[in-house]
């Protein structure tokens, strides 16, 4: 019995680079997806508050108290106070289910600037004056409800506010933010270019493989028989 073993139109050496290119495209796509998800996903970051304000402008007193996912349903109370030198703190704002201003020289100029999940517990001072210079304290009390127990946690943050008549020329934060966005745009563009390059390489490999198969099919049948290698039992 004679068996004809015909050559495969697509060589193994052509398949290996094709598989490597596809793997590279998949890895780059996953990396780009991870970056996009990390950028767009809302997260809680414990950032410090600004400590310099300008007369006549609003000023946000930032108070961040991050919680874990299982702690988001906790009951939260926030007490804001002004701490004079060598005197008792003066309560100025309260959040206990609802934000509420308290009596004092800041009444009518304080607004709630926190988040719905109560991880950002900030307030803002409107129309800042020179008399607003001083120390502010944010005290966060949380009561958690678990199956077996109900723990409570108290955190506090102190902000030393300085009011100036004109804004200072500190551009470090602005330059840092600009560089961060430039780097993010550069990485995104680089990944897109790599993906386009890999897709084009895959398309070219597929076209070469298709041309090889077409040329093989175009060979007359009698010539195809000559390509066989006789194997005799």
Automatic annotation (TrEMBL):
It is a single-pass type I membrane protein. GO terms for molecular function: sodium channel activity; sodium channel inhibitor activity; transmembrane transporter binding. Residues 1-42 form the signal peptide. One of its GO terms (cellular component) is voltage-gated sodium channel complex. The chain crosses the membrane at residues 178-199. PROSITE patterns: IG_LIKE. GO terms for biological process: regulation of heart rate by cardiac conduction; ventricular cardiac muscle cell action potential. It is found in: Cell membrane. SUPFAM superfamilies: Immunoglobulin. Gene3D superfamilies: Immunoglobulins. Its main location: membrane. Keywords: Cell membrane, Disulfide bond, Glycoprotein, Immunoglobulin domain, Ion channel, Ion transport, Membrane, Signal, Sodium, Sodium channel, Sodium transport, Transmembrane, Transmembrane helix, Transport, Voltage-gated channel. Residues 42-154 form the Ig-like domain. Belongs to the sodium channel auxiliary subunit SCN3B (TC 8.A.17) family. A voltage-gated sodium (Nav) channel consists of an ion-conducting pore-forming alpha subunit functional on its own that is regulated by one or more beta subunits. Forms homodimers and homotrimers. SCN3B is non-covalently associated with alpha subunits and induces the formation of alpha subunit oligomers, including trimers. Interacts with SCN5A/Nav1.5; regulatory subunit of SCN5A/Nav1.5. Interacts with SCN7A/Nav2.1; probable regulatory subunit of SCN7A/Nav2.1. Interacts with SCN10A; regulatory subunit of SCN10A/Nav1.8. This is Sodium channel regulatory subunit beta-3.
